[in-house]
Design a protein that fits this description.
The chain has eleven helices and no strands. Helix 4 packs across helix 10. With 288 residues, it is mostly helical.
Length: 288
């Protein structure tokens, strides 16, 4: 097999002879120019509408620096009662995230099969289920928390319900997409050996999809730990309520210490979820 080297002179000659072959058609170039022009105008309008200016940014950075200076040195709790209150808030936030994610996953798991096209062969039912997922995801967790606070009062219960309802839409959609991406070879093998449709799901689809579902669930748990902090600020309990209280009272050193504890908790959850993924995904891979 021989290869011929094309010189720059030959490319220039071909470009001169066939100019249209080396550039996009006119309508494509006009469409690209219109899109980039529209993007630039939208960007400039946003800067103008949001009153963006270098002076404002510079002044804001100066005030931010003063706020950060108030946080140092971080506060160290010397009384057990005060520190126990902080630990209780962290525990509430973690419990809210865990219970909300667990409840959402329990409800989303069976619903995901109705939204997967390789499991649910009824287009109208599948379309309705998928649109239901979209409706649930349209409500931000913070909005759900405000609604549930009105219904059930202040406290972690409203946060748990807000996270659970939000997770139903998110997890069901992600679970359904994971189920749809499974290979049909295992399913065909189970069916060819005389297995029923239910058995093909149990022994062919589930071993493929369970590691993915576990990874998705653990990732959402980590995300909900951070969301639980925000929910506490609006009255759903947890460490966010204590953080908002310290910021409102201008106790910036305590606020920084609470933020540091939140960061440490998120890192711990991330490390534990990584260990769980490595343990169970390896087990499932070995049984396939």
């Amino acid at each position: 097999m021989t290869t011929e080297t094309v010189t720059a002179a030959e490319v220039a000659m071909a470009r001169a002879a066939y100019p249209l072959a080396f550039r996009a058609p006119l309508h494509v170039r006009l469409r690209r120019a219109a899109l980039w022009t529209g993007f630039g105008l939208l960007f400039c309008w946003c800067l103008y509408d949001f009153n963006f200016s270098p002076v404002r940014i510079w002044e804001g950075l100066g005030r931010l620096g003063r706020v950060l200076s108030f946080m140092f040195p971080p506060h160290i709790w010397t009384e057990w009662r005060e520190f126990a209150e902080i630990l209780k808030g962290l525990g509430e936030t973690l419990s809210m995230a865990f219970l909300g994610t667990l409840l959402g996953a329990i409800i989303a798991f069976p619903l995901s099969f109705l939204g997967a096209k390789n499991i649910n062969r009824l287009p109208f039912l599948r379309f309705g289920v998928r649109r239901g997922f979209d409706v649930i995801r349209a409500f931000e967790t913070l909005i759900l928390a405000l609604i549930f606070i009105r219904a059930f009062g202040l406290g972690p219960l409203a946060g748990v319900l807000a996270i659970a309802v939000g997770e139903i839409g998110v997890l069901a959609k992600l679970y359904a997409e994971a189920i749809e991406n499974t290979s049909n070879k295992s399913v065909d093998g189970v069916v060819a050996s005389g297995g029923s449709r239910t058995q093909s799901i149990r022994f062919a689809v589930m071993p493929q999809v369970m590691p993915v579902l576990l990874s998705i669930t653990l990732y959402n748990l980590e995300s909900n730990v951070r969301s639980g902090t925000i929910l506490g600020i609006v009255g759903a309990g947890g460490i966010g309520f204590l953080l908002a209280d310290r910021i409102g009272a201008y106790r910036w050193d305590e606020a920084w210490s609470i933020i540091f504890l939140i960061i440490a908790m998120v890192y711990l959850i991330d490390w534990l979820s990584g260990r769980v993924r490595a343990r169970f995904i390896g087990t499932w891979e070995g049984t396939r």
